[in-house]
Structure formats: structure tokens, C-alpha cells
Amino acid sequence: MKFRVGKLLLAVAGVLLGGAVFAQAYPSKPVTVIVGYPPGGSTDLSTRVIAEKLTQMLGQPFVVVNRPGAAGNIGTAQAARSAPDGYTLVHGYVGTIAIHPALYGAKLPYQPAKELTPVAPIASVPTFLVVPPSLGVRSVAELIAMAKAKPGQVTYGTAGSGSTQHLFAELFRASAGIDVRPIPFGGSGPANVALLGSHINFMFDAGQVVQQVAAGQLVGLATTAARRLPNLPDLPAVSETFPGFEATSWHGIFAPAGTPGPIIDLLNAKITEALAQPDTQKRLGAAQMSVMTMNPLAFASFIREETTKWASVVKATGIQAD
Q1: Model pLDDT, residue 212
Q2: Which DSSP category does 235 fall into?
Q3: Which of 161, 181, 284, 290 is 20 to 30 Å from the Cα of 43, by its Cα?
Q4: What does pTM read for this prediction?
């Protein structure tokens, strides 16, 4: 019995030592970081900021590869099927990680809880309700009045069917009791371009639209944060019209399930270090992103809570993905 226990302890020690050696050698070649959306949106920006920092810190290129389509599901599924060796990572956000399991059900080509390991969060992102100046709308109340006067004719843009823009807008639609029509695009960047061109009527989009509002290219009606933002005190919160309304996004880095723990811990530590640097915070802050830091276990717990929350919203609104 003692002999067997001794062999077991040696085996465990070997696994732990092997993992530690693996982590020390990592990375020994370029790392691919998949983004499931086109360049230009907050998902792409947050990932590139972190990829640049990891490249500097770890001495190997962290190469961002855009794999847009299906509201981020194509790129995320590709990452989930990749070898769990730390050389393929993926951007994950509230949509692809916490919303889509309830939205797509068995049709979702990956299972976040089983096939992806949380590495580290990057930032939380308030979303803004914006319209083009040509619409002639200057408040949430005016937008609702227009939608009620023209049922089914007012359109809103999304980064794809089932994206956060889609879900946030559907939550707004249900709260306001209006009939509006979604127009899906291949990412928030293309949808934003359509909004700037007045090809759609409104959109819920992330921080980059703040600069467009300041430049007069768009009109900001409200934020989806729980209350007004300290740096934008004149912008109302949707919750001022519909108490309890809150819809914020978050971004993070994930790895295929089975990626060695020492590599996950190393990446988490380096990402956390990067997020503490003033230049990183400045770049993210310019897009209205607030830094988030958690260890992998805390991040996993946070994701479980978010998944439960958005599953209830999907059920309550009756939203369906194509």
C-alpha cells in the first residue's frame, strides 16, 4: 500500500513539475488570438491592446486574427476546437460567452462552460443608445414616440443576430412596448458605418460612439449603465425612463478547455499587469472601457452569474437567433 501511495505521489509531483516547466517555456512561438468580429469594434480594440502588451511582456508575437460571422460564433467555435496548448486564445464577451448558450441552445457550435477556460477579463463597457442626426430625434421619449407612430418601420442595427446590440435593443423594445425591426450586420463596425450613413435608425453600441457624438456625427440619447456615467453627467440612463434597466458588456480572454493551469495563471498575471499600466488604461478609457481584473476562478464565477442573468432575459423577451 505504501508503495502504491508513493508511486501516486511521484506521479502527481511529475504532473505538477511538468506543468511548471511547460509554463516556463511558454510561449516559444507566436500565439494566435481570435476575434469573432471584424476590425473596428470594441471587441477588436480591447483584444489588440492586450495582444500588444503580451507581445512585449512575453517575447513572442500575440497575433490577432479576425474570424467574423454568426455574431462571433464562428471564431469562438474555431478556438474551442483548437489544441489546448496555449497557442490559440480567443476574445470572449458577454454575448459569445454568457448570452449565446441560452439564445442558440443546441444550435450553438461550442459550449463555453465545457470547451473554453476563462483566462482573464479585460474591461467592462457601457453601451449607448445613439441615432443619426438626420433622424431628428433628441431623446428616448422622442424615439419611442416615433416607433409607436410608425410600427415596424423604425430599424436598429446589430453586430449580428443574437449579438449584444440585438439583445440590448430587444430588452429596450420590450420595456418600451414598441415594434422595431433589427438589421443584422457582420459586426459592430459595419453596423456603425450604416448608422453614420443613416441607413438604419438607431443602435446600441459601445464606447467608440462617444467620439462620434462629440463630433456631431451621431446623437447620444442614453447609456445602458445602471445610472449616469461620471464622465458624461448630461447623458441620461435608460433606467431613468425604465427603472431597473441595465445592460452592460464585458470583454475577456479565453483558452480551449484543457489548457495547462500554469499557462492560464501566467497569462492571467501578465494581463492583470498590463491592465494596471497607465497607457493601457488610457487607451481603453478612450473607448469608455473600465478595466476589470480577476483571477481565473473569480472570472469563472462571474461568468456563471452572467450566464444565469442573461438566460432569464432571453426567456423573458422571447428573442430568437436566426
Answers
A1: 94
A2: S
A3: 181
A4: 0.77
Environment class of 69 (CB within 10 Å of its CB; exposed 0-12, middle 13-18, buried 19+):
middle
Closest CA to 202 of 247, 245, 172, 174: 172
55-60: long-range pairs with CB below 8 Å, 24+: 57/270, 57/273, 57/274, 58/27, 58/270, 59/27, 60/27, 60/28, 60/29, 60/30, 60/31
> Would you call 93 helix, strand, or coil by DSSP?
strand
Closest residue by Cα to residue 305 from 36, 97, 106, 119: 97
The series of mean pLDDT values per 10 residues for the chain, 322 residues long, is 49 49 81 93 92 98 95 95 98 94 94 98 93 98 98 93 84 94 89 96 87 95 91 93 91 98 98 98 88 97 94 84 69
So what's the pLDDT on residue 15?
46
d(CA 35, CA 38): 8
Reduced to 3 states (helix: H, G, I; strand: E, B; else coil), residue 34 is: strand
Per-residue pLDDT, 162: 72
How far apart CA 60 and CA 63 sit, in angstroms, is 9
Number of residues that make up the chain: 322
What pLDDT, on the 0 to 100 scale, is given for residue 293? 97
Name the region of 185 (left: φ>0; alpha: ψ -120 to 50; beta: rest). beta
Long-range contacts of 274-278 (CB under 8 A, 24+ apart): 274/50, 274/53, 274/54, 274/57, 275/50, 275/122, 275/123, 277/53
